[in-house]
Design a protein that fits this description.
Length: 284
């Protein structure tokens, strides 16, 4: 997603490259990739620019010209996200102090809300649910949580004209994230950073969807302990109380990430990725 001189014009990443790099352990920041659509387990590591993208996914078209408004907006937010996630690589104590701050949690929440909605697989859901944007806006009261200012009448116009491809891109990729990133967690749950359990001997991986959940409520509001990918060594936990995440919970989460993937699953090591994929193949 972010500006990258090696990327061809119009190659738009729905999972930011900085986040893909967090699952690499090599100096060249490459990852090993499983292509779910082809059932192909790659043996050559891939740079982040080669996966989790679509051509002109965010380009707005007017009179035959493409405009990068959404892409430029995401580039602004990606610097904030990248800086915040680097701070989450500090000591576990320091990382959780950052998350205890309201601004830190908002940045993290907005990132994962964007990852939910920006996936191309959410296009139908966004179109089907567009009318709910107005009630979501009203529920915000004084709009104190809005990442970007928007008037209700302007929002209503976007919804009314959702048949427009340009408006639908704005609704899916920008309006839904800013209206839903503060979806309440169940029972006042909070985000915390945790290390991979020492007794979990599989590599941590990630997938092109970036999260687990088929609705934004499943992502943030469902009961129990919720896990989020963070890096090849750490996870984010959304829970009511500080918890020790078990190896079994992490394993179930990793399986769910693979099941949720639209196309790409990636990991720091070839053997680590192969263990995950071959186990699933055997079970099928």
């Amino acid at each position: 997603m972010s500006a990258n001189k090696q990327n061809p014009p119009g190659r738009h990443h729905f999972l930011p490259q900085f986040f893909i790099r967090r699952f690499s352990q090599s100096d060249d920041e490459t990852v090993y990739v499983y292509n779910k659509l082809r059932d192909h387990l790659g043996t050559i590591p891939q740079p982040p620019g080669k996966i989790c993208h679509e051509s002109h996914l965010y380009s707005l078209e007017t009179l035959g010209q493409r405009h990068p408004l959404i892409e430029k907006t995401f580039s602004f937010f990606e610097k904030q996200w990248a800086d915040t996630f680097r701070m989450l690589d500090a000591s576990e104590f320091e990382a959780n102090v950052l998350l205890a701050d309201g601004n830190g949690e908002k940045i993290v929440r907005f990132f994962y809300a964007c990852q939910f909605w920006r996936s191309p697989k959410r296009k139908e859901l966004a179109s089907r649910s567009a009318e709910t944007l107005l009630s979501l806006y009203d529920a915000l009261g004084k709009a104190e949580h809005l990442i970007a200012p928007i008037e209700r009448k302007e929002l209503k116009r976007f919804v009314k004209l959702k048949a427009s491809a340009n408006n639908m891109k704005i609704i899916q990729n920008f309006l839904f994230p800013i209206m839903t990133y503060m979806t309440p967690a169940a029972n006042g749950a909070k985000f915390r950073v945790v290390e991979k359990p020492k007794d979990y001997d599989m590599d941590l991986l990630c997938a092109d969807v970036g999260i687990v959940g088929e609705t934004i409520e499943e992502v943030f509001s469902s009961e129990g302990v919720k896990l989020f990918p963070l890096s090849r060594q750490r996870l984010l936990v959304l829970s009511q109380d500080p918890v020790s995440v078990t190896a079994d919970e992490v394993d179930r989460f990793q399986r769910s990430l693979i099941e949720s993937a639209a196309q790409h699953v990636f990991c720091a090591t070839k053997d680590g990725l192969a263990r995950h994929i071959n186990r699933l193949r055997y079970e099928l």
